[in-house]
Design brief:
single chain, alpha+beta, three-stranded antiparallel sheet, disordered N terminus
Amino acid sequence: MSIEVESGDTPAENQYKRKTDEEINTLAKQGYRGEVFFSWQISEHDLHLLPSIFMVIGFLDDVTRKEMIRDEIRHFYGNMSESSPMAINGYPCFFGMGMLNKEDAERVHARIMEIMELLGDFKPEKSDG
């Protein structure tokens, strides 16, 4: 999808506020406990459902979409307690969402993997190197 926006419609500087270590840890714990649903949990063949799962995406204007591209927003998340009782192909449905840029998404995912390893739910493959 190509988005064309007139120059000057969006501020040049990144508007995304990086998550603190505490926020990353909280999101990771909530994700591990299943209290938060992340867009990376959507199967690749179901990615076309993203606007049906995170309903807000369908209402974003072109300027906001361009800002998200500029800010390198890569993933969305929603609190399961705030999801709609209706599911889309087995996925929850959210009317609000949080956003993570590439770096914060990697931090949250890495922290979830650490939690899983610490609790014995995940064992990384050992390399022969």
